Amino acid sequence: MKKKLLCAALLGGLGLAQAANAQEFDDRWYITGSAGFNFQDEDRRTNDAPFVTLGLGKFLNPVWSIDGELNYQNPNFDSGVVGGNSDLNWSQYGISFDFRRHFVSEGRAWNPYLLFGVGYQRSEEEFDAFPNPNSPGENEDGNFAAKVGAGLQTTFTNRVAVRAELAYRADFNDDSFAANGSTDWNGYPHNQEESWFGDMLASVGVVIPLGPEPTAPVAPAPAPVDNCADRDSDGDGVNDCDDRCPDTQAGTTVGPDGCPVPVTIDLRGVNFDFDKSTLRPDAVQILNEAIEILRRYPDLRVEIAGHTDSVGSDEYNQGLSERRARTVYDYITSNGIDAGRLVGPTGYGESRPIAPNTNPDGSDNPEGRARNRRTEMNVQN
Question: Which PANTHER family match (predicted)?
Answer without folding.
Answer: LIPOPROTEIN YIAD-RELATED, STATOR ELEMENT OF FLAGELLAR MOTOR COMPLEX
